[in-house]
Amino acid sequence: MTTETATGLDQKTRDIIKATVPVLEEHGTAITKRFYQMMFENHPELKHIFNQTNQRKGDQPKALANTVYAAAVHIDNLEAIVPVVKQIAQKHRSLNIKPEHYPIVGENLLLAIKDVLGDAATDEIIDAWAKAYGVIADVFISVEAEMYDEVKETPGGWVDYRNFKVIKKEVESDVITSFYLQPEDGEAFPSYRAGQYITVKAVIDGEAYNHLRQYSLSAAPGGDFYRISVKREDAALDQPKGVVSSFLHEHVNEGDILPISAPAGDFFLDVEDTRPLALISGGVGLTPMISMLETAIKEQPEREIIYIHAAQSSKFHSMKDRVEEIAGQNNHVKSYTVYDSPSEGDSFDKAGRIDDEWLASILPTNDAAFYFCGPKGFMRAMYQHLKAYQVNDTDIHFEIFGPSDDITK
């Protein structure tokens, strides 16, 4: 995609879009929140696709606002946002977003801009944004078309959802359970890169709409199954209990069928990098880290690996035995456990939370590859710790659960 074809807009239109940047910065989340309200009123069938929990929490409107804002800022050079487009497009492909969805989004986004801004949203501004949205949508559709073609051409690959049978259900901790999946039809299915995810379509009795959730694959690729390890999201003061995680834990058993999409995602282990590898996880963020750990010891048997996991206590620590087994069998692997609130009798390396001094004391060098995953607060802290350790941004890799959020601020 060239700058000229990506922009495809006359100078007047681009000037109008750039002039609205301060307005988007101030009202962006209000606009996108109203957009989702209007779109679901006009097209309730789209609730089958969009995560309603993220809508209630406000995460999805904020994520969309950030994307629209970035597009406006870079309207003269949309190539600058291609990495973000590709990341979002991976999620769209996994959710089976189609070209016909984009006009619906565009129509309701323009209605929301007009609704929130009132008379300030002149016909000239609305017309400019209609043109800009058309160009931006075309970029997404083009990128996603390539991704759909790629998965169709992959041996065993498929588009849309395919039924997989739960061949094993294994409790990993008080809150995490693993599900081992194989195709119901017994046919071939594609491998994946360590760190990628699948989308599970949950069709739940009593629910008006389907629920789609993306879960990291928690085993090394190359086996005869996919494995996801799901945390049960219990009700708390600030959130209801997780609809899909509760469904999986309480109602899905061995022999049951789950429709899933083919593996996707741009967060995966670079097996060409031979420098020391640091894998850092908090809570259920260990799922892609376990996949990377198992992959690295198979494909890079001499690579130095530092595996760090933070949990509340041993009751919430999944796959500890597996990690200890790997560390015991591989001298180049070192494992560390951090418990925030350890229980009596727990075995761990640090109580409390990871801090700059402790992290620097166990890491061999800052010239390494660093991957981390976990709750957003944990990830913000890890990013700051690694920057304090003077790690280059190009060596910092992370995956965010749910809608994209900037953890670097």
UniProtKB/TrEMBL annotation:
Its EC number is 1.14.12.17. The keyword Oxidoreductase applies. Pfam families: FAD_binding_6, Globin, NAD_binding_1. Transmembrane segments: none annotated. GO terms for molecular function: FAD binding; heme binding; metal ion binding; nitric oxide dioxygenase NAD(P)H activity; oxygen binding; oxygen carrier activity. PROSITE patterns: FAD_FR, GLOBIN. Residues 8-145 form the Globin domain. The keyword Kinase does not apply. Residues 156-409 are annotated as: Reductase. Residues 159-270 form the FAD-binding FR-type domain. The record marks 36 as: Involved in heme-bound ligand stabilization and O-O bond activation. The active site is at 102 (charge relay system), 144 (charge relay system). Binds 1 FAD per subunit. Its cofactor is FAD; heme b. Consists of two distinct domains; an N-terminal heme-containing oxygen-binding domain and a C-terminal reductase domain with binding sites for FAD and NAD(P)H. Belongs to the globin family. Two-domain flavohemoproteins subfamily. PANTHER family: FLAVOHEMOPROTEIN. This is Flavohemoprotein. It comes from Oceanobacillus polygoni. The gene is hmp.
